[in-house]
Amino acid sequence: MATLRKNDILTLLRAEGKATVDFLADHFGVTVQTVRRDLTELEQEGHVSRVHGGATLRGGVTNIQYDHRRELHAAEKEQIGRLVAAYIPSNTSLFINIGTTTEAVARALLDHENLTVVTNNMNVANILAGNSNCEVIVSGGTLRRTDGGLVGDLATQMIEQFKVDIAIIGASALDEDGDMLDFDLREVGVSRSIIRHARRVFLATDGSKFERTAPVRIASLADVDAVFIDQPMPGDLAQRCLEWGTSVHIVGQHY
Amino acid sequence: MATLRKNDILTLLRAEGKATVDFLADHFGVTVQTVRRDLTELEQEGHVSRVHGGATLRGGVTNIQYDHRRELHAAEKEQIGRLVAAYIPSNTSLFINIGTTTEAVARALLDHENLTVVTNNMNVANILAGNSNCEVIVSGGTLRRTDGGLVGDLATQMIEQFKVDIAIIGASALDEDGDMLDFDLREVGVSRSIIRHARRVFLATDGSKFERTAPVRIASLADVDAVFIDQPMPGDLAQRCLEWGTSVHIVGQHY
DNA sequence: CGTATTTTTATCGTTTTTTTTCGTTTTATC
DNA sequence: GATAAAACGAAAAAAAACGATAAAAATACG
């Protein structure tokens, strides 16, 4: 239910960015319980983020969605990261794309020697800055705050100036036909460009991506050389990957 | 768990670069243990780097030499940063170049509205990621670990695709003839390109740079529109700037 | 005016956060 | 390299914030 007070709370939050429950209760001359109810409702409506003791405007300083996304399946991602890293030799040039799983790969690459890494992911650049045996080349682009990605034409343009040994990409979703999907058209442009400018393409993803969907098609699993995943693929996709010549590497399974 | 205080700590760190546990405890009126827990959590969330006695903003390049350089004349740099920020209106497009003083400017810009900032400095990008009113465009380039700079042809190439209202540059050294100097030839190329592709050029520097020297000449003070500095310039340089039409703004002196 | 509905407040047990208190580790100084 | 001071983490106690529910107040409506 919309009330005058809830609107006022929103305007106040827009001005201040944040407010405590006590302050709001005092300011509107109501009890804290009333304020709490207001804030709970505003949170459910997606307008504010509730924190202990108060609330902040949604989309403010902290990025809840990304933090949450990074925590999701964190253990699996670390395993996938290590698995991919095992297939990356020293003295190699790499693309590393946007995504929490690709960041896990970057972390697993901290001990590798003599890598040249091109990335459009600020987090990957920050991580690999810690490996002094690794030359880090950052692609240009517009900084997307939600995930540290560099996107847009500038990123694509820049990537086209390289040709690397291996590209490591992620995907927001996968479907059982073997298509890789994403949400942001601008990012898909970058991903396609990365695939074109790499000799081999590795997809790093966790199995939960099969349970999600996204509107834009990046490419087919037929276009990648290897898939690294934490659980077997659904349906007959494993068989089709075999036909496509796409090797599938599953965490914990050694050949 | 997100709290109001943890968000505030983050904004404070973005503005200051670093903070001690004692200062934060005093500032928020809580005990040091509470601050410690906050910082530990923020570290686990990947937002800050914990150091003995306090914390620093994460993301960035952690380099002892660079950290030391950043602490050098830190107070002066903050003042210069605020001074420059006062001359930057809202709704403006900016270049921000490599350098500890330019980073201080970025920190002072956290409250500005509607900026478009192009930068080849990873630290600046990380700082301004905290200002959601600001579009951040990162130039491509090879990551230089010593200072988070993006250098090389790629950076130059990318900068040439822009034309901004104001460029904010620094310099490693200045001489009494009014020449700006630097150490790295690759960086000088970028600086020159930035000067060419901005309508106005601001030099932000501290007076100690007159006591240092460097091998490569970037340009003359005659090529910049305004100098922001913490102390009067030596010799007859102030007079010559007047002849060149280069305005000089000194911290603490109001006109 | 009286009743029904919504909104707010009061109460209480539960959860979360903060502080207190300890021994341990790190850093600074001689 | 020894010693003192500062900073640290862990655990228990205290305080604050929380959600749920029922009572009270305000509002709506015939």
What's the short version?
In chain A, helix 8 runs parallel beside helix 9. By secondary structure, chain A is an alpha/beta fold. Helix content of chain A is 38%, strand content 25%.
Layout of SSEs?
The structure is a homodimer.
Chain A: H1 4-16, E1 18-20, H2 21-28, H3 32-44, E2 48-51, E3 54-57, H4 64-71, H5 74-86, E4 93-96, H6 100-108, E5 115-119, H7 122-128, E6 134-138, E7 141-144, E8 149-151, H8 153-159, E9 164-169, E10 173-174, E11 179-182, H9 185-196, E12 198-204, E13 216-220, E14 226-229, H10 237-244, E15 247-250
Parallel strand pairs in A: 4-5, 4-9, 5-6, 9-12, 12-14, 14-15
Antiparallel strand pairs in A: 1-3, 2-3, 7-8, 10-11, 11-13
The structure holds a DNA duplex (30 and 30 nucleotides).
Could you explain the architecture of this structure?
The structure is a homodimer of 255-residue chains. With 255 residues, the first copy, chain A, is α/β, with parallel strands linked by helices. Helices cover 38% and strands 25% of the residues of chain A. The first copy, chain A, is built from 10 helices and 15 strands. Chain A has helices at residues 4-16, 21-28, 32-44, 64-71, 74-86, 100-108, 122-128, 153-159, 185-196, 237-244; strands spanning 18-20, 48-51, 54-57, 93-96, 115-119, 134-138, 141-144, 149-151, 164-169, 173-174, 179-182, 198-204, 216-220, 226-229, 247-250. In chain A, strands 6-5-4-9-12-14-15 form a 7-stranded parallel beta sheet, with helices on both faces. In chain A, helix 2 packs across helix 3 and helix 5 (74-86) packs across helix 6. Chain A is elongated and about 70 Å long. The termini of chain A are far apart. In chain A, 42% of the residues are buried. The mean pLDDT of chain A is 89. Chain A binds chain B through residues 18, 20, 49, 51-54, 56, 59-62, 64, 67, 70, 122-123, 125-126, 129-130, 132, 135-143, 145, 148, 150, 154, 158, 161, and chain B through 1-4, 6-7, 10-11, 45-46, 58-62, 122, 125-126, 129-130, 132, 135-143, 145, 148, 150, 154, 158, 161. Strand 7 of chain A pairs antiparallel with strand 6 (134-138) of chain B. The first copy, chain A, binds a DNA duplex (30 and 30 nucleotides) through residues 1, 3, 21-22, 30-34, 36-37, 40, 52-53.
